[in-house]
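1st attempt posting a full record on here, be nice pls
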Amino acid sequence: MCKIKGDVDNSGKTIQTLSGQGASRPHLLLFFVFLLILGVERTMANDSVEITVDSTVAFQKIDGMGLSDGPGPQQMASMSRKRREKIYDCLFSDLKISIFRHRIHVMKDGTCFETEPGKYNINYDPVRLELLKAAKKRGVERFMACVWTPPLRMKTVSTPTGKGRLKKGFREAYCRYLAEYLIRFRTKAGIRFDWLSVQNEPTVMGVYGCRFSPRGLAEFTKYLQSYLSKRKVSVQLALSDGVGWAKTAQYLNPFRKTGDLPFSLVTTHDYKGVKGRTEVLTFVREKKLPLWLTEQCDHREIVPHYENGVKWACKVIEDFELGINAWFHWCFVALDTPKGQKGQKESSGLITVYPDKDKYTFPWRYFFLKHFYRNIRPGAVRIRATSNRQDVKVMGVRDADKNRLAVFIVNTGQTSMPVNLKFTQFQKGTVIENVTTERSKYATGRPVTFGSGDHRTVIAARSLLCCIVKKGSSK
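the predicted structure (as tokens):
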């Protein structure tokens, strides 16, 4: 087990030596010692964490842990190449991102993949292309492309903002643009996009966007699917990256009564609370579609401060308990800006960058989320894992080969506690403990053998303990 400075013993109590008037009476002394031992045992029982991991009860299959690029390439463009390469190492080699979500970008001045009608340049955004290549070089094998806005010549406004719509008569030209994007990035950069999200947040009139009505986006998605099929472009379409559950539900409505869907994946964000969540979950269950939560960041009340790593860990567990199949953090890097609640500083990135100083720092979320990124691999299945305490959150996943488990345990309390893990199937094997607290970043312990289907350890206060369990002999 990995020891963390400041841990207490299993009971958290110190037994004082009995003395005084009653100590001269042996029978009373024995009686008081018995009561004292009984009280300590009850205290230990009340303070201990009992976790049962039942790998025979399986829930959803997990496609992976993803990350989005967002505005990050522009924010780090002025940093040195050497510094950017180190950031790529941290994200892709250290975290082991399994899916990367790439923005098909149009810059504020209109610069984009299309240099003029019928002519294209994959290097239109050099740092964004550099980022894709860096991800692939460091082991990322699956990529999603996501549309924010069409080229400005195809919009009703001459800016990339969400106030504009796709011009009439430009549907086929826009489909050609997207097809060429997928084809040329594969043939010229070696980046194959397995998924294409048709439109990010179609109701948001922000800096980048394009407005579609639910029916309008449904019709365009059908046309796009047909066009890509004729061009023999192999990609799975996703709908609809709504800004919240309610908006996603609204854009799924045109397809509720049909079994012929032009998309094979539902994507959503949850920035607007839980309204509409039941409708989306019901839709994907009835249509037997995977559901990806493609953006999570600070811009909502759920995670009000980016330094609260414990809350981030709880959020990941809560999201997977809904039945989602993939979880994405929003920006891979972001500036440190005073936009948080009550003047708190906030960075929506996994890494905070300071371009003017050519440096970067890690918010605590990086170290807490690292456990999930490294240990939830594509094809894993969430399994039943229960805790006897409300202040201790737990989630278990089983690898595709069924010989390895990852058990994530989050202690939200202010004291450390003894933990007893019980496994229904893994009677013998080894456990490696990885831990992050609010005082220590990331530590890995040595393999420990266990037998009789249980493993005992201690979890520190305000921490995440990830136990990697491998089936095998305890000898």
